[in-house]
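Sequence in, structure out. First:
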Amino acid sequence: MFKGILITKDDAGYRAQVQPIDDAVLQEGDVTVRIECSTLNYKDGLAITGRAPVVRRFPMVPGIDLAGEVIDSGNAAWKVGDRVLLNGWGVGETHCGGLAQVARLRGEWLVPLPDAFTTRQAMAIGTAGYTAMLCVLALEKHGLQPGDGEILVTGANGGVGSVGIALLAGLGYRVVASTGRLADAAHLKALGADDVIDRQTLAVPGKPIGKERWAGVLDTVGSHTLANACATTRYRGAVAACGLAQGMDFPATVAPFILRGVTLYGIDSVMAPLAVRQAAWRRLARDLDLAKLAAMTREIGLDEAPSVAAQLLDGKVRGRVVVDVNR
């Protein structure tokens, strides 16, 4: 038995409770990890609250991220004592995840914990920060350089946005943060934003094409925000889209793509190949300012996770949340 959050669904309804969990709940896997830390992402909030059908089988342990130590391995790539982390792969949705003290996993899903990070720091980064790094890599691969102009980061107070600002600013880009919480402007500027704008300037229906402004965009929001970001991106600029906080819809036209040669990159963190994951984590170890990471992070115990998950979906959580699963 071990402690964790267990999601169940039956005639009595949908429930997510912190409770003792029997090993029999865990699916098959060739590596068992004693988890030290997990985190809360937007998808975890949806899973725990049941506000969207994220969980595909029951019972389920949520948590798309985890970091800890291998305690049993039938996989030649891993041995007892190895320090590992995991992001995505359907964990917390179709396979029991990280918001518990133990996980049984497939060895090919794991990434070595970089020496630069503790398990707490790795989970302060989590899928949110790893996704932000994938966005930065896409913008770099496109050829964008710091001197090319402003980079827009939407959903700036969220996990992806916060880490994205810190990364881009550290690399020398001029960053403009879009947020619905202008009272947090000082915090966003401390992370590296040069300017902060009200998200409402982007969140309402706009023109098919607008005045050129952004050399690049890191978008976590989708819907009208993404459409407007594309419409105001400069000639041959790039937009990296990784989220849907405003919605899954994309009410846009082809005008930015055929008149300005704008490129829209879709960023998938869940099923990204191992080599891509390792490259992202190497860059995070090199480029992320750990003092800025600490400034955007709070830590909670496992018992607090369900209530904080609801707050996250309600837009009341700033930055990153680390979950210590052993307290």
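Second:
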Amino acid sequence: MRILVLGSGWMGSAVAYDIIRFGVEHKLGLADKDKERIVKVAETLSGEVDMHVIDCEDEVATAQLFNRYDIVISAAPYRFSTKLSSIAIDSKAHFLDLGGNNEIVRKQLEMHARAKTAGVTIIPNCGLAPGLSNILAMTGFRQFEKVDSIQARVGGLPQNPRPPLNYQLFFSVDGLLNEYICAAEIIEDGELRFVPSMTGLESVQFGEKYPDLEAFYTSGGLSLLPQILEGEVNNLSYKTIRYKGHCEKFKTLLEIGFAGSEPVMIGGGIHTTRELFAELLRKKLSATDRDVVLFRVGISGIKNGEHREMRYEMIDCYDEESKITAMMRTTAYPTAAIALMIANETVADRGVFVPEQIINGEQLIDDLKKRGIQITKQINGRMTGGK
């Protein structure tokens, strides 16, 4: 098949790297509006890549390009995903993206009938969280007769934290601020509800190496999973993992208005405090250190007639050989693996789906293991199946 990766930044370059390694029988294309960036990424790849300079704002050119491919994987900003999904359907190309916005995902799901008629599969939210975390939450859910609780705890962290925030940017600063500002949707005692982000602080530990962590509610990590599981579970939550002390410090900055939308005069120009804050974060939290992604999805309920607790867990670190960050690996590789499931017809459903609806989590664990990403599965503390 012909597979196009749209966007050659951090995530797009990692998706292309993975397709080259594990989809050698398929033809790969790489598109971006920045020609120099495409060339630079293509030079790092070991296989043949067709390069396309294109701006997603140009719908005609985008449609012409999509017509040349069977599968399109978008690593472009999520604001393009609704239009790109529609273009993919008209072009009869399967389409995947990294998600990032619940309202856009809802608009994509409204295209289900069109996609099914066109014979294509559209899957938003194929990254880490939402994405891998949702897939494993649903995979675990299906193994229980009755589920009481699902808890997802995920975070990308510098391996060597530096004060004062003990954090560095591993994706867009706007995405980070949205996670910290917008309300988080959870299920609590059987009821859907919204809670303020950066609340619900709890202590978290990942072995002896990461003993001093915290987790708190953030927006978007569950995407539409609360609606899917409403009435099926008593409690469902997602929290972001950080080093201890981060939440209090960052929340203080937000409370005094550092991410506000009100205009202010700065250097003769009108900006917002959020724009100023975002620029400061880019300068001070640039991703220069090796990173680690910590991941845990816990499910508890009735299994085989008895109360059981199941846990999926992962600690993934910066890849010194490929120079690919843990955040890139754990976001891009699941997306590429899902695209290859479509290419290899392991996924044959047609229409628009979030990945937890149609992706086999155990198969994805196996696929990620081939890529050096180890996800363990435990039931009541006992390892099962080597996964």
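Remark: The CA atoms of residues 6 and 92 lie 16 Å apart.
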